[in-house]
Amino acid sequence: PIIEDIVNRRSFLALTAALAALGLPGCGSDTANSSFAPTSGGGGLIPAAQEIQGRIAPELVFSGAEMGSAYGPSTITGNTFTTSISSSTVGLLALGDSAGKVRGFTLTFPGETPVFSAESSALAILFMEPGRLKLDPTQARAQIADIRASSFFAPFVQLLLTNASSPLDFLSGDSAYVAA
User: For residues 150 and 143, what is the distance between their CA atoms, to the nearest angstrom?
Assistant: First the structure.
C-alpha cells in the first residue's frame, strides 16, 4: 500500500528510461563554448566531470557490487567508491550487483560526497518522478526538501531499509505497486 502512495509504474518506467539515457553519449561537437565535455565520440552533451570519492552505507555493502558513471569506470573498495560526476549539474549513480540488478541509487551534487543508502535510494526514486527532476542543484535541493518533508518519505525509506538485501525490482512485485 505504501508504494501506491509514493510512486506508480509509470514513474518507475521513467526512472528506468532516465538510467538508460545516462549511459548514452551525447552528440554534437561545439564544446568550445560550453560547460559540456567531449565524450569518447568527439563531442557531446555530457557536462564536464570531476572525480569524487563516495561512501556506501552498511545496508548496501555487499560482495560483487558494481557501479558505473556516464563519465567512465568506477571502483568500489569496501564501503567507499571512486567515480566521476558532473561538475555543474545534479546526477544519478546506480549501485548494482553482479547479476546486473540495481540495489541502490544516489543523487550527486557538484562538490558534495555522494552516499548510497536506503535514504538516498528513496530520494532518487521519488526525485526521478516526472515533474520533479531538476538538473540545477538549487532547484533540486528544493525538490529534495519537499520529498523529505512528505508524510510518506520515512515509511518508504524504512521499506527500502527492510528490503536492502533485495534488488530494487522487488518494488514491482508489490501488489499495490503493480496495480497503480
Answer: 11
Question: Within 13 Å, how many C-alpha atoms sit on residue 69's CB side?
Answer: 28
Q: Is the dihedral of CA 133, 126, 130, 36 positive or negative?
A: positive
**DSSP E strands: which ranges in the chain?**
36-37, 46-47, 49-56, 66-69, 72-73, 75-77, 80-86, 91-96, 102-108, 115-116
pLDDT for residue 10? 44
Helix, strand or coil, per DSSP, at residue 29: coil
Do 102 and 122 form a contact (C-beta atoms < 8 A)?
A: no
pLDDT of residue 129: 85
Q: Along the chain (180 residues), what's the average pLDDT of each consecutive run of 10 residues?
A: 43 48 35 38 62 95 88 90 92 91 93 95 91 89 94 92 89 55
Q: Quickly count: other Cβ atoms within 10 Å of residue 52's Cβ.
A: 20
